[in-house]
Design a protein that fits this description.
Blueprint (H helix, E strand, L loop, with lengths): L1 E2 L4 E2 L13 E5 L2 E5 L11 E5 L4 E4 L22
Antiparallel strand pairs: 1-2, 3-4, 4-5, 5-6
């Protein structure tokens, strides 16, 4: 992950399940790993890396298994 205060890359712990062909996104300082597979099975996993906790956390899985997907998350801020 990129440590913006030092403009340097740093390693983070391995995900809870080894996988490839997954989608990734960031939102509110967290990294999301979505879907993917192991070459035999496709996964519906959604894992979130929280730098404040220093580890990956399982989130609610998707309803279907997917691999080779593109994912985009948008955060909108409204002001009065």
């Amino acid at each position: 992950m990129l440590q913006s205060e030092h403009n340097e890359w740093a390693s983070c712990p391995s995900m809870l399940r080894e996988k490839g062909s997954l989608a990734g996104a960031t939102l509110n300082g967290k990294i999301y790993a979505i879907g993917g597979g192991d070459g035999v099975k496709c996964f519906s996993d959604v894992e979130m890396f929280d730098p404040a906790q220093g580890g990956w956390i399982n989130n609610q899985s998707m309803l279907q298994t997917v691999t080779l997907i593109i994912f985009c998350m948008l955060s909108m801020f409204l002001s009065k």
